[in-house]
Write a structure and sequence with these properties.
The structure is a single chain. This protein is α+β, with helices and mostly antiparallel strands and 461 residues long. It has 15 helices and 14 strands. The strands form three sheets. A five-stranded antiparallel sheet has the order 2-1-5-4-3, sandwiched between helices. Strands 7-6-10-9-8 form a five-stranded antiparallel sheet. It has a four-stranded antiparallel sheet with strand order 12-13-11-14, sandwiched between helices. Helix 12 packs antiparallel against helix 13 (356-373) and helix 13 packs across helix 14. The N and C termini lie far apart (147 Å).
Length: 461
């Protein structure tokens, strides 16, 4: 019996020891896991602290009563406060009503209260506030997020604040530019438009000038009109679209169109095409200038024999008539003008060696070079056998020297690519018309002629 009892006691001790060992191992494992969790928690706290402190976004945490609990560096920088000033400021404003405490939330207090009382989120994209240190006006955006307990009671509010002053300033500047641009577009005397790129064409956007230009009673009437119906020759629309597809833009294209009442109108077109992903013209944006009076003037000049028969340019009489008128306009509008005097150096030698028919060819080629160099509305004339003149307005992009370089480049390009028994050479001089000290056309011609002669002499040396 005693042996049986001893055996049972021994087995019991072994079982207890085994259980104890198991418990020890489990406790060791739990302690290891606890240490690992502590380390992870410590690491998480360090990481969260680093993110909190070094975030470029201002972070503040308040309790449900609105008391400030924590702020990061970015938040203090946005408001221009030190840690001590934050504490003092919070004590001073703690008991003020929300409208006094957060004056920049005017009109949004009810939404603000709802988050503090019932939880949820709130995003306020634009708030106009004052920097508490400098007093300067700035713009911020704020995001509010409520942290709730298991009973859905609000414990804390996390507020993310960003200084968007730079972005807002740029946006307002851009809006001001857009407003100014639209004011110019709405009041400018030339027509500004957008149409579809299909063969018939439909107006999408137009300014008042274009409505008036085509004699429409209202904007609605023009928008309901097909662009094709405004062409005097409907084939011109097809040519216009074809050129846009090829070159992507059309510049200074003169087109005969018609008003709603059928009256003819000449327009000068500048247009640029916008293409879709299939390479088709989607939109056409452009500017129309009514040049009917100018075309009528040109017809009148032609009728008065003011055009040179050989070149189609104005002759001396035509130039003097137009130039005097242009100088009066320039003086009235305070615009500078340049008169270029151009001499075809070797015309006599070409005539003597190859005959006058080849000499005429040289004059015609010279005319084409001048037309390619200068704008359509510049006054180009042949005032003598081998003498040409150009009257053009002077701007930053059309200074006399730049025009001379452009002319010389076109001349050299012609001589290289054209196989003729002669080369063209030019001597060029110019004179400036100052609207503050007006000159007569004769005086400008004399000054430009002397300048051209000096250029010719310098080439002979």
């Amino acid at each position: 019996m005693k042996n049986i009892i001893r055996k049972r006691s021994s087995r019991t001790k072994l079982r207890h020891k085994e259980i104890s060992n198991r418990l020890d191992r489990r406790m060791d494992k739990l302690e290891t896991m606890n240490d690992q969790l502590k380390e992870k928690l410590r690491h998480s706290k360090v990481l969260n602290r680093a993110l909190f402190e070094h975030s470029p976004v201002g972070i503040s945490i308040r309790n449900s009563a609105g008391d400030l609990l924590f702020v990061n560096k970015a938040w203090k920088k946005i408001w221009g406060l030190t840690t001590q000033q934050v504490k003092i400021n919070d004590r001073k404003t703690r008991h003020l009503p929300l409208s006094k405490r957060y004056p920049y939330l005017k009109g949004k207090i009810s939404k603000f209260k709802r988050v503090f009382q019932h939880g949820g989120e709130l995003f306020l994209p634009e708030l106009k506030v004052k920097n508490q240190k400098s007093g300067a006006t700035m713009w911020i955006s704020q995001y509010y997020y409520a942290i709730q307990d298991k009973h859905n009671k609000v414990e804390q509010i996390v507020i993310l604040t960003q200084n968007i002053t730079e972005y807002k300033t740029a946006e307002m500047a851009l809006r001001e530019i857009d407003t100014r641009f639209m004011t110019i577009v709405e009041n400018v005397n030339v027509g500004v438009y957008r149409t579809t790129g299909d063969p018939e064409g439909h107006f999408v956007q137009v300014n008042p000038a274009i409505v008036k230009m085509f004699g429409c009673k209202s904007l609605k009437e023009l928008l309901e009109t097909k662009v094709l119906d405004l062409y005097h020759d409907r084939k011109e629309r097809k040519k216009f679209i074809k050129e846009l597809k090829r070159k992507k833009f059309v510049r200074n294209r003169e087109i005969l169109m018609q008003k709603k009442d059928g009256k003819s109108i000449w327009v000068s077109v500048y247009a640029r095409a916008q293409f879709d992903d299939k390479g088709q013209v989607k939109w056409i944006d452009g500017v129309l200038e009514d040049i009917t009076k100018r075309k009528q003037k040109e017809d009148q000049l032609r009728a008065l024999s003011l055009i040179d028969d050989l070149t189609g340019l104005y002759n001396r009489r035509g130039f003097m008539t137009l130039a005097e008128h242009q100088l009066k306009i320039a003086s009235r509008k305070k615009k500078a003008v340049i008169l270029l005097f151009i001499d075809l150096d070797n015309l006599k030698a070409i005539n003597d060696e190859f005959g006058h028919s080849i000499g005429d060819r040289a004059l015609i080629e010279m005319t084409n070079i001048l037309k390619a160099t200068f704008r359509k509305y510049d006054i180009i004339a042949r005032i003598g056998g081998d003498e040409f003149v150009v009257l053009t307005s002077e701007t930053g992009a059309t200074r006399a020297k730049d025009l001379y370089i452009r002319l010389q480049t076109n001349l050299e390009s012609f001589n290289k690519r054209t196989k003729l028994p002669f080369v063209l050479n030019l001597s060029v001089g110019w004179a400036h018309h100052n609207p503050e000290k007006p000159q007569t056309v004769y005086r400008l011609l004399s000054m430009a002629d002397r300048s051209m002669y000096r250029h010719k002499q310098s080439k002979r040396q």
